[in-house]
Amino acid sequence: MSLIRAGRTTIYVLNMYAEFDNRPRSEDLAWLAQLVAEQKLHTSIEVEAPWHDIGEIAQHLLRRQFTGKAVLHLA
């Protein structure tokens, strides 16, 4: 949390490994979801699409047609 409190911090990758502590990963995910809900952590999602569109989305990513993240929804 001290990293986030510093301000203007960007997290590109967050790895959560169970061997570092005994805390369940679900607590970490709940904490991140709470930060997003409180607008303290902003995600750069540019595209949301159904999983069936993965080929098209992958092509857009390979062509660098958008810079944010792509979220594919499972149905």
Summarize the structure.
The protein is built from three helices and two strands; from the N terminus they run ααβαβ.
Describe the fold and architecture.
A two-stranded parallel ribbon has the order 1-2. The chain is an alpha+beta fold. The chain is 35% helix and 15% strand. It has 2 domains: 42 residues, no CATH class; 32 residues, no CATH class.
Q: What features would you highlight for this structure?
A:
3 helices; 35% helix; 75 residues; alpha+beta; elongated
Strand and helix map with partners:
Layout: H1 2-5, H2 25-37, E1 45-50, H3 54-62, E2 69-73
Parallel strand pairs: 1-2
Shape: elongated
Whole-number radius of gyration?
A: 15 Å
What is the CA–CA distance across the termini?
34 Å
Give a count of the beta strands, DSSP E runs of length 2 or more. Answer: 2
Mean residue pLDDT = 78
- List the helices and strands in order: HHEHE
Low-confidence blocks of residues: none
Give the tally of structural domains: 2
The assigned structural class equals alpha+beta
Beta-strand fraction estimate = 5-15%
Helix content estimate = 25-40%
Major sheet size, sense and barrel closure: 2 strands, parallel
Q: Give the number of helices.
A: 3
The spatial strand order of the largest sheet comes to 1-2
